[in-house]
Design brief:
This protein has 2 domains: 218 residues, Alanine racemase (TIM Barrel), CATH 3.20.20; 90 residues, no CATH class. α1 packs parallel to α2. The chain contains 11 helices and 18 strands. By secondary structure, the chain is α/β, with parallel strands linked by helices. Bound molecules: pyridoxal-5'-phosphate. The site of pyridoxal-5'-phosphate has 14 residues, from β9 and α9.
Length: 373
């Protein structure tokens, strides 16, 4: 089988999605599935949709176009503010986009009018992450602009936390976001459909005991895909953490300790990150490297240690019996490693698990199965 590859268990992704959708549902919070870490992989997006997300979101138009080209018909939101140079593609393939810049909103409106459609605008508010966002005091003005311009419709507001700065948001920050949504409705009139309260880092808040206020959407990538809560790195109870596995091939085994003293390694080579001189370790080399993934985001197999990596080689020490050359080694990835590996041209994606979506309730009642798009 082709190596290196990522094995993706679609059943686990669907199940993780369903678990979160069921926990957040009683709190009146819908889940938007974020596909950027899998480069908009259509089967993963479909597994999220089958698990009950209200729609999917991605940061890059190329990923959105990949979804559309595969026949994905669910709603897609662009969660990075569009590039001015891409507004036509954005209105073509996304129902809505996150925005912070009046100039870009006007360009989206013009593009939507050219296409004869109306593009949804979610305004991103700066609530402390200091990445993208409109300052709260300027939000009403931008919202009014969206209201006045034909071609765009104000769909809602959203905030982002724990990306560039800081940790998970406080209940105080979340209450402020709810209050802002009320204020925008007072000033602008329309009901805000979406009040999107952050990403996976905000799950502990969303599932907490307190009121969730006006927040009715959360955008989840890491929690669905890897089953972990990003700030602590802890597994979320009842979730699969092994939906993705990176499989690489052994190209050399070497029972000997390194033949050179540690001190003589050329310091400019910057090759070895961690060096063990423990001769109890036998070494093996896998045909994968920095060009394929974030090596430090890999969890080595039990009994193994990362010795180092170069662009194309991964050197592992193991206290267990060495695998034979040509055999496969399986490792787990964190979000960063997953994101890079999914984008790596030399890594194939192999889908596992039931490729058929479970029948929707509607179809079940009619005794039909839904076709996979
Ligand atoms: C990436 C991203 C998300 C999803 O983040 P996760 O930590 O994967 O849940 C949500 N919102 C925005 C704006 C993003 O860029």
């Amino acid at each position: 089988m082709s190596c290196p590859r990522i094995e993706v268990d679609l059943g686990k992704i669907r199940c993780n999605t369903q678990t979160l959708v069921e926990r957040l549902g009683p709190r009146a919070i819908g889940v938007t599935g974020v596909t950027k870490a899998v480069c908009g992989h259509p089967a993963v997006a479909q597994a999220m949709l089958d698990g009950g997300v209200v729609g999917v979101a991605d940061a890059r138009i190329r990923n959105v176009q990949r979804l559309r080209a595969a026949g994905f018909t669910g709603p897609i939101t662009l969660i990075r503010t569009p590039m001015l140079s891409q507004v036509d593609q954005v209105v073509q393939s996304c129902e809505a986009s996150y925005n912070t810049e009046p100039l870009i909103i006007s360009a989206l409106a013009a593009a939507a009018i050219r296409k004869g459609s109306v593009h949804g605008i979610v305004l991103m508010v700066e609530m402390g992450d200091q990445r993208d966002g409109i300052l709260p005091e300027n939000l009403a003005d931008v919202a009014q602009l969206v209201m006045q311009v034909p071609g765009v419709a104000l769909k809602g507001i959203g905030a982002n936390f724990a990306c560039l700065n800081g940790g998970a948001p406080t209940a105080f920050q979340m209450a402020a976001l709810s209050a802002l949504s009320n204020r925008i409705e007072e000033v602008c009139g329309p009901f805000l459909n979406v009040v999107s309260g952050g990403n996976s880092a905000n799950l502990p808040w969303a599932l907490g005991e307190h009121s969730t206020g006006r927040i009715n959407d959360i955008r989840l990538g890491e929690a669905i895909l890897l089953g972990v809560e990003p700030v602590s790195g802890d597994q979320i109870g009842g979730m699969h953490t092994d939906a993705f596995t990176l499989v690489a091939e052994v190209i050399e085994t070497d029972a000997k300790p390194p033949p050179f003293p540690f001190g003589q390694i050329d310091p400019t080579a910057e090759r070895l990150r961690i060096v063990t001189t423990d001769s109890a370790f036998a070494r093996m080399i896998l045909a994968i490297g920095h060009q394929d993934t974030d090596i430090l985001g890999l969890t080595m197999p039990v009994g193994s240690t990362l010795i180092g990596a170069t662009s194309d080689h991964l050197v592992i020490g193991t206290s267990r019996s060495l695998p034979t050359v040509g055999s496969e080694v399986r490792v787990q990835m964190n979000y960063n490693a997953l994101m890079h590996a999914m984008a790596a041209p030399d890594i194939k994606v192999k889908l596992l698990g039931d490729p058929l979506p479970r029948p929707s309730r509607q179809a079940q009642s009619k005794g039909e199965r839904v076709a996979l798009v």
